[in-house]
Amino acid sequence: MTALAADRNTPRRQGDLLNGLLAASVAVFGGAIVMRNDAGYLTKGATATGLVGVGVAQERKTGGASAGDETLNYRKGIFRFANSASTDEITIAEIGKLCFVVDDQTVAKTDGSAARSPAGFVADVDAIGVWVEFDETRVQSHLAGLANPV
């Protein structure tokens, strides 16, 4: 490409509603935790490594035979999910810290001995569950050890 010689109408994405390519054969329910895998495809929240939380599914969708056959609408932001139990239960002491995915509707305090991937940051905890802030860029920066994430 060459430098501009005139005004340009530059496309933009605004707001918190996004979409992405869905992994093959994965069934995602509306309201589920959505994660991105190492290959860049979206999948449902599950105990697994190599994933990062991106938001909440805005629809029910099943991936096609090949990764990328379907797209999924998801929303980033702050959402409430079920709290894990026992020693992995999240308390107000974890506000501001990473939490980890147990399944597509449950988060935990720890990575389960390196078996779980990060969902996002704990925004609050109440009697019903854990409020999780989904911000993929911030989580990735945190994992990379960057002091001032974008």
Quickly list its features.
5-stranded mixed barrel, 1 helix, 5-stranded antiparallel sheet, 150 residues, mainly beta, 2 domains
Topology:
Blueprint: E1 17-21, E2 27-28, E3 33-36, E4 42-44, E5 52-57, E6 61-62, E7 71-75, E8 77-83, E9 98-103, E10 106-108, E11 118-125, E12 130-134, H1 136-143
Parallel strand pairs: 8-10
Antiparallel strand pairs: 1-7, 2-6, 3-4, 3-5, 5-7, 8-12, 9-10, 9-11, 11-12
Can you put this structure into words, describing what you see?
With 150 residues, the chain is mainly beta. A 5-stranded antiparallel sheet has the order 1-7-5-3-4, covered by helices on one side. The protein folds into 2 domains: 59 residues, no CATH class; 67 residues, no CATH class. The protein is 5% helix and 37% strand. The protein is built from 1 helix and 12 strands. The model has no long low-confidence stretch (mean pLDDT 94).
Strand coverage percent: 35-45%
Oligomer: single chain
Low-confidence segments: none
Report how far the terminal alpha carbons are from each other.
27 Å
Number of helices: 1
Rg computed from alpha carbons, rounded to a whole number of angstroms: 17 Å
Instruction: Give the ordered list of helices and strands.
Output: EEEEEEEEEEEEH
